[in-house]
Structure formats: C-alpha cells, structure tokens
Amino acid sequence: MLAVGATMRQLAMGRELTAKASTVLRLALAVLSLAGCVTLSASLGRAEPHRPVVDTLSAVVSPTDGKTVTPPMDLVAVATPTTVAFASTSTPVPTPVSLPEPTPKPQPRSQPVAAGSVPVLMYHYIRVNPDPADKIGFGLSVTPRDFEAQMAFLAQKGYRTITLRQLSDPAALQGRAVAITFDDGYADAYETAFPILKKYGFKATFYVITSLLGRPRYMTWEQARELAAAGNVIGSHTLTHPDLSQVGLTEARRQLGESKAEIERQVGQPVLDFCYPSGRYTDSVAAAVKEAGYSTAVTTRYGWHASAESAFEISRLRVSGGSSLGNFAAALTE
Ligand SMILES: [Zn+2]
C-alpha cells in the first residue's frame, strides 16, 4: 500500500491533471485506502479468519521435526488492489505500478502525528529479488542499493535508531527517532543489512524463527550472536511461524515461551521483543505475549506507533521493494 499510495501521490503532484481526472484520482485513492484498511484488518486476525493471498504458498515441512512450517511471508500488503480501485471509474487512469517517479519530493504532513509517535520500519529481505516473476518476493526485497540510500537519508536527516522498548520512553523519543526491524531472520539481514547499518551507526531489531536459523537463506545462531554483541536486538518470531490467531492458546504459548527460551540460551541475552507471524493475532494472543514475559510486540498494521497505543500492538511502516527514496521520505513525514 505504501508504494502504491505514494506513487499515486506523485502522480497527483507530477502530472498536470485536469480537474476531472483529479477527482477520479481522489476517488481511486479513497477506494485504495479503504481496500488497504480491509486488508490490514484481516491481517490482524481479529475478525473473520481470512487467509491472505500469500498463505496459498506451499508450506515447508521441517526435516528435523516433521512439523509444517508456514512460509515466513508477512505479505498482506503486497496484494495490489488496482482492479478494485479503478473498477468504478470511466476515465482511464494509468496504472500506478510502472510509472516513473520523477518528483520524489517529500510532502508535508496532511495532519499532525500524535505526540510521541515514531516510525517503525519493517524490512524482510535486503537483496536483489532473484526471480523476476516472483512478485511477492520482489515486494519483500529491498535492494542493497536502495537500503543504503534509505539509511543514508535517515543519517542525513539526523535520525537516531531506538529499540522497540524505547518507544515507551519519552526521553528516547526526543528529536528524530526511528526503529528499524527485520522479520524472519534471513541471512541477508546479517550479510547485507548489518554492514550498512554499522556504517551509519544504526541498530536494529531482528526477529528470528528459531527452527529456521541455520537453514539455507537464514542467518545462523553465530550470526545472531554477532548482531546482538554489536548492540542489535534479537527478538522472537516464534518457533515455526504459525498463524497464532488459529493455532489455539496452548500452542501459541508454547511458540512464545520456547522460542524465547531458545534465543536466550543461544544468544545469551533476555528476549523481550516479539513479532506476530504475518501480523496475525487476537486479544488473547496479545495477552499471552505479555504473560510469556515479553515487553513489546510488533504487527504488520501500517502506520506510525503512537506512545499511547499498546506496546503489544505496535504499527509499522512496511518498506517495499521497488519503492523510491521519495516514497520512503514521504512515509517518514506523514
Ligand atoms: Zn514473518
């Protein structure tokens, strides 16, 4: 939604549209944002159980314990509702996906962000997507070049990185604060993102799926220890990445407790930060996260985190593959 929404904004800025076309565009944006709300609320797993597009991907069976591991794809927002958005318009509107982005100029906030609000960035892969036909993979993959440009932008603007726990510490939020998160524990978060973070003096939180560490494409425990030793945070993303809104509370508690214990044993630091697989949870699951001894939990709900909101329902800004630096800047200013 970020990429599409921001691109649509640029469309509005960068092109001289007739008054009629502008009206159509506003209509389309309204529908788009409505579609986004629906998608994201579904991702919370609070309402009618609804499996997002990505869950149709085949599951992976763990060779070690024979249990099914849901692919760690937190992809709900990748689905592009362009057909929904433009179905009711008669004036042809160019597709926002392939447009050039000539004027990546940050826009001022349309409305003030609540005091104490902080952007929490969500990344998955930092890589060049290896399969051009894999649109989901593309959306999850921020290229190393783009990631470096984004970190350089943050540094240039005077941002400091904070941890998720510092979101509730007013003193830590002074000036420009941002939290950076990586889901799933992919190897490139260590191999590619970590050196760039270090270059700019930034720290991040890496949410690992304990049963997948050391597998191909995933970081190793040794790498997780090195990240932690450098001041980064290793958080839990469960044992096997199940949909916690569906597995039942007993299993949810096991996922929460055993992954926490395993990371603490392997990394040697308290594990206080949690990330809901695919952003799915219920009130009972959120309560179980707290009971398991965590201090924070991040969702895939889009937006800045306001300090008045629950520390167990932290909103984030998804950084999508192919999104321009202008989109990135715009997300940080609204
Ligand atoms: Zn995940």
Question: What would you say this structure looks like, in words?
Answer:
With 334 residues, the protein is of the alpha/beta class. It has one domain: Glycoside hydrolase/deacetylase (TIM Barrel, Alpha-Beta Barrel), CATH 3.20.20.370. It is 36% helix and 13% strand. It is built from ten helices and twelve strands. The strands form three sheets. Strands 3, 6, 7, 8, 9, 10, 11 and 12 form an eight-stranded parallel beta sheet that branches. α6 (187-199) links the parallel β7 and β8 (205-208). The longest helix has 25 residues, at 19-43. Residues 1-71 and 73-112 have low confidence and may be disordered. Bound molecules: zinc ion. Zinc ion is lined by residues 72, 74, 183-184, 237, 241, 277.
List the defining traits of the structure above.
334 residues, alpha/beta, TIM Barrel, 8-stranded parallel sheet, two-stranded antiparallel sheet, 12 strands, 36% helix, 13% strand, disordered N terminus, binds zinc ion
Chart the SSEs and their pairings:
Elements: H1 2-14, H2 19-43, E1 60-61, E2 68-69, H3 82-86, E3 120-123, E4 125-126, H4 135-140, E5 141-142, H5 144-156, E6 160-161, E7 177-184, H6 187-199, E8 205-208, H7 221-229, E9 233-236, H8 249-267, E10 273-275, H9 283-291, E11 296-302, E12 314-318, H10 325-331
Parallel strand pairs: 3-7, 3-12, 4-5, 6-7, 7-8, 8-9, 10-11, 11-12
Antiparallel strand pairs: 1-2
The structure holds zinc ion.
Zinc ion is lined by residues 72, 74, 183-184, 237, 241, 277.
